[in-house]
Specification:
Strand content: under 5%
Number of helices: 2
Helix content: 55-70%
Distance between the termini: 98 Å
Shape: rod-shaped
Number of domains: 2
Radius of gyration: 33 Å
Largest sheet: none
Structural class: mainly alpha
């Protein structure tokens, strides 16, 4: 009789131990998911920072020689073309698409087809 009671207690303890382990595993899993979500949002932030940095570098280094390289809104591009006073090798103002042959499917800085 005592033996059966001892076995019953041991089984109950084992159940409690397993139940507790399951709870710990679920808590650990929830913590891991939270950590993964946090890392994903950090990666998004990093991507945005890198994209913004590349955008600024492209704007600074393009010198408006090729309108398709200009990054920004249409208003910004128009402003940049209007304020450009430099000229390229042929004497055309930088940012103009006069040298591009028609039919190549390119557009000017303000979005009009050539």
């Amino acid at each position: 009789m005592l033996r059966l009671e001892t076995n019953g207690r041991e089984r109950e303890r084992e159940r409690e131990r397993v139940r507790g382990r399951g709870l710990r595993n679920r808590t650990h899993l929830a913590g891991m998911l939270t950590a993964c979500h946090r890392m994903a949002s950090w990666e998004d932030t990093d991507r945005r920072v890198i994209w913004e940095r590349e955008r600024q570098e492209a704007r600074a280094s393009s010198h408006l020689t090729a309108p398709e390289l200009v990054v920004g809104t249409k208003r910004e591009r128009t402003h940049l073309v209007k304020t450009s006073s430099s000229s390229d090798v042929d004497g055309r103002p930088l940012g103009s698409c006069q040298g591009i042959e028609a039919g190549e499917g390119r557009t000017t800085a303000d979005g009009e087809g050539r």
